[in-house]
Write a structure and sequence with these properties.
alpha+beta; seven-stranded antiparallel beta sheet; three-stranded antiparallel beta sheet; 10 strands; binds protoporphyrin IX containing FE
């Protein structure tokens, strides 16, 4: 089952941001760790520039990210990772991958890769750095599992520029989100979850796959029925965290993507009800933007049947 389930019975256009509790980690590790790290490393190997970019002058922020990510990972998952700090001499052990790395914190020559690029290969999260200058510009990132965008699309753009294609109904929410990002204090990270549905569980849904996906969707959509769609559709959830970094003042935007087949989630009646309520109240413009409109009717039919079948069982 999905660890996050941001469906609340009706469409919610608000930011949905909350403080990260002290017992909640920026870095999460699940059963997909090995597969996702291998996939990330393969993508970076084959097309490095597509998946990793950093502006000159972001080195300090990259070290900030490395510190935060490794420290959180080792603290919250001591069975998987260790980090031993002796002054600036750091020793990282990744027990899951049987790898280790010694380096001098702040000395880029002591690592085989740029700090953000190296740290990102240890965790399932995508890691994006937003500038500290009030514009929240995307100045560096390792982005392997995006949903419909890529670094080339958004690199060097401000937070508001990045979101310009989003529907008009959420533009005031995005103005508020921009202000919120500017005000995140150090040591008080926040997080939110976003949702979508896809006819594939391919993790890397970068822009280069958008045309193929849209064509496949156009061909598949007429064949999707309320009987078949449960096993053909995947719910895609992003757990997004936002953290002010202490040395650079930049913001780390972390994205952990979780997916599950719709039928699994809808087997839980409460979850089916919450998705149905959300889809029924999502404005058409948003359903179209999220590419859900082509299968909206089949999805609603499937959810109604699941809920009805469950009620019939209970009433027997
Ligand atoms: C509190 C912070 C944020 C909020 C409330 C927020 C909200 C949204 C919303 C409502 C959408 C459109 C609908 C949807 O897909 O759900 C969206 C799309 C998007 N967001 Fe965010 N977002 C936030 C942070 C960020 C950050 C920091 C980035 C990257 C730097 C980002 C990148 C994107 C991208 C690339 C899209 C798709 C835009 C397109 O269609 O080209 N978001 N966001």
């Amino acid at each position: 089952m999905l660890p996050y389930f941001p469906f609340r019975n009706e469409f919610d256009h608000r930011m949905g941001t909350v403080l990260l509790r002290p017992d909640e980690s920026l870095v999460e590790v699940d059963d997909h760790y090995g597969h996702e790290i291998s996939l990330k490393r393969a993508l970076l190997f084959h097309n490095h520039r597509y998946y990793f970019q950093a502006q000159p002058g972001t080195e300090l922020a990259q070290w900030d990210v490395l510190d935060r990510v490794l420290t959180e990972a080792a603290y919250n998952h001591p069975q998987h990772f260790s980090l031993i700090k002796s002054g600036d001499s750091w020793h990282w052990i990744n027990h899951k991958l049987a790898e280790e790395q010694r380096f001098i914190f702040g000395n880029t020559n002591s690592l085989p890769l740029a700090p953000l690029d190296w740290a990102g290969r240890q965790v399932q999260e995508d890691l994006i750095i937003l500038s500290a200058d009030g514009t929240a510009t995307l100045v560096a990132g390792q982005l392997c599992f995006p949903n419909g965008w890529c670094l080339d699309d958004k690199f060097g753009q401000t937070f508001l520029g990045i979101h310009r294609p989003a529907p008009a109904m959420v533009q005031s929410t995005l103005q508020a989100a921009h202000k919120l990002l500017e005000r995140i204090p150090e040591h008080r990270p926040i997080w939110r979850a976003s949702w979508n549905f896809k006819t594939t569980d391919q993790l890397d849904m970068s822009t280069k796959y958008s045309t193929a996906y849209n064509n496949e969707l156009a061909a598949l959509a007429p064949t999707l029925t309320s009987d078949s769609i449960g096993n053909q559709l995947f719910i895609r959830i992003e757990r997004q965290t936002f953290t002010r970094l202490p040395r650079s003042g930049a913001v780390l935007f972390g994205i952990h993507t979780y997916q599950n087949v719709l039928a699994d989630e809808a087997a839980d009646r409460d979850r089916a009800v919450r998705i149905l309520g959300t889809i029924r109240t999502t404005p058409p413009e948003m359903l179209s933007y999220k590419a859900i409109a082509p299968f909206e009717d089949a999805l609603i039919g499937f959810l109604e049947n699941s809920i009805h079948a469950d009620s019939a069982l209970v009433n027997k």
